Amino acid sequence: MSQQNVSRELRTPKARMSYANLVEPRPFMKDGKPKGEPTFNVELLFDADDVNGGFDLSVDGEWNSGTKLPHLLVEMVKEKWGSDFEVKEAIKHGGLHWPIVDGTERSEKKPKLAEVYDGKKCIRVKSKEDIPPRLFARENGKIRELSRNDQRDLPIIKDLFASGNYVVCTVNAVCTEMDKTKYLTFYVNSVLFIEKGERLGGRSGDDMFSGIEGGETDVDPTAGMSDNSDNTTDDLDDEIPF
């Protein structure tokens, strides 16, 4: 069991953005009122096969491809809270906030999401106001960083990093605990625009984040990224919650 926050740096496969909020930080909205600190955030939609083998894990500064994300997360939970920690039971009873959400289950509750969410796995990633995610796009065959403070870049950012478009991200998965509840939180470090997709609907803070609260910590998502984690987790299959 670790007394420290357990974290891993990952690079995602291509994902479609939903509820994208990467231009400026916004607070969580509840009953039409802001609550908590402003954050950058976006929900990433993945094919199930990508979640089960499409992530890259950073090891000694190199990307180790083909990571099974659920296995890695279970490994992190057990490193943080002990090898006897019952992952499925904790998720079932609300003691552990699991970050991977089944898109089909979401669309069953909100049928208007079905066309976009059915068959997908969803992960919400975020970053605190003072650590904005870096934004990148290809220009003349090279990757260029875009600046929110550059008036020439700002309209490009608003166009490229909108809901419906496709990106690849670098993120930190972090195990934390707050008020006796355990969290697996994804902090987004950088986002690379890949290609445009059909634009998704308009943005409403109340609609987007209704019922989503907590999990905010003071963790620096850029710290502690030198883990040499073994990626062999086949013996943890029974702990995978989906």
Overview of this protein structure:
With 242 residues, the chain is α+β, with helices and mostly antiparallel strands. It has one domain (6-197): OB fold (Dihydrolipoamide Acetyltransferase, E2P) (Beta Barrel). 19% of the residues lie in helices and 42% in strands. The chain has helices spanning 48-51, 69-81, 87-92, 103-109, 114-117, 154-160, 205-209, and strands spanning 6-11, 15-30, 33-47, 55-59, 62-67, 96-97, 100-102, 120-128, 134-139, 142-146, 166-178, 181-195. A 5-stranded mixed beta barrel has the order 2-3-8-12-11. Strand 9 (134-139) and strand 10 (142-146) form a beta hairpin. The radius of gyration is 17 Å and the shape is globular. The two termini are 24 Å apart.
Topology:
Elements: E1 6-11, E2 15-30, E3 33-47, H1 48-51, E4 55-59, E5 62-67, H2 69-81, H3 87-92, E6 96-97, E7 100-102, H4 103-109, H5 114-117, E8 120-128, E9 134-139, E10 142-146, H6 154-160, E11 166-178, E12 181-195, H7 205-209
Parallel strand pairs: 6-12, 8-12, 9-12
Antiparallel strand pairs: 1-4, 1-11, 2-3, 2-11, 3-8, 4-5, 7-8, 9-10, 11-12
Keywords, separated by commas or semicolons:
12 strands, alpha+beta, OB fold (Dihydrolipoamide Acetyltransferase, E2P), five-stranded mixed β-barrel, globular, 19% helix, 242 residues
Number of strands: 12
* Anisotropy-based shape: globular
Tell me the name of the CATH homologous superfamily.
Answer: Nucleic acid-binding proteins
Secondary structure: helix percent:
10-25%
Quickly name the level 1 CATH class: Mainly Beta
The mean pLDDT is 84
Sheet with the most strands, sense and barrel status: 5 strands, mixed, barrel
- Determine the structural class based on helices, strands and strand pairing: alpha+beta
Number of helices: 7
In the CATH hierarchy, the architecture is: Beta Barrel
C-alpha Rg (nearest Å): 17 Å
N-to-C SSE series?
Answer: EEEHEEHHEEHHEEEHEEH
Q: Work out the count of structural domains.
A: 1
Query: What is the fold-level CATH name, i.e. the topology?
Result: OB fold (Dihydrolipoamide Acetyltransferase, E2P)
Q: What fraction of residues sit in β-strands?
A: 35-45%
Model regions low in confidence, pLDDT < 50 over at least 5 residues:
202-242
* Terminal-residue CA separation: 24 Å
- Tell me the strand order in the biggest sheet: 2-3-8-12-11
